[in-house]
Amino acid sequence: MLGGKAIRCKDCNHVHYLYFSCGNSRCMICQSIKREQWLDKLQSKLLDVPYVHLVTTMPHRLNKLAKRYPRQMYNLIFQTTKATIWSIYENEAHVGAKPGMISVLHTWGSDMKYHVHVHSLLSFGGINKKGEWVYPKHKKRICRNRKLRFTYKNLFLEGLEKLLSDPQIEWSETFEEIEADLKDKQWNVRIDHPSMKSEAIETYLARYVNRIAVTNNRLEFVKSTEQVNLLYNDYKNQKDGEIAPKEVKSMHPLVFINQLLLHLPPPYFQRQRRYGIHANKVSKEVKALIVKKLRNNGQTIRKVFEILTQMLKRQPFVCEQCGSEAIEIKEVAPDQQWIFQYITLPQIRAPSNNISAWKNLTNTVNG
What we know:
By secondary structure, the chain is an alpha+beta fold.
């Protein structure tokens, strides 16, 4: 308990709580400023060329394996996504150039079920060996969707076979058994048409860079039933050209906590990665090769007060029950013992750059 504010309505006595930020990069309500900053950095690095939105999905058949070995399986889907795109872009029959790609890992669907997939923003074209920008041979796609799915499936299975041959990976099934179930099925790989307007997917990627799974405004605890209600988009019943209908999923609080914890990435795992000409090191090297007309307009990172101004473009707070603006605000004191137990423990901090200091911390923790 970090403390916060209790906002009481003077008309109906309803109390709304606002808690102070914990600073955790995976918190559902914290890190809004960091998300805005990440989005600005992303927009400043993108080129003035079309981009495509690519989604690569891990088959649900492998969910149990991913829950047992999340780091290895999450790395596998990242590596396979990159290898798939690179194998197609390096082929001169399709492009013959090095693209730029920014990928973000998601492990959830709208209803918080375990659904491992990677969203990628991929440049529609790249830099060839001569340092020139070239576009794909096809005007609206990098290759046929069938080839994209086939390449992704084969490369993923190759990586999975290598992973399962590792003596440290203990699993109840052999690779041959898993392959027999998956090799003849159609894998879920989706790619949109190229567009110069990538703002929607940029915002979508930024939304979950410093947050996981769900936001507070989609959750409600019903005291009478002691259930957590989750508002989600029902994509299965979505009609073409229409917004997905909303549905409510009820769960026991412990079930909800379990589902939320499933989406916590392993410690220090990087959920967003940059490849090709968008990789940090490479982007500096190729910057001089990119002609000015292909560069974005140099949108810079906004200062903190500008971000706050953007975030605070809201109506005055009103009671969520009766709509009254007559409110009073009281402090909610933090629980100092809780903070000491869960926030200041040295073993949950990021590793120190000072190796000797890190060893001393480790020895202290291990007793």
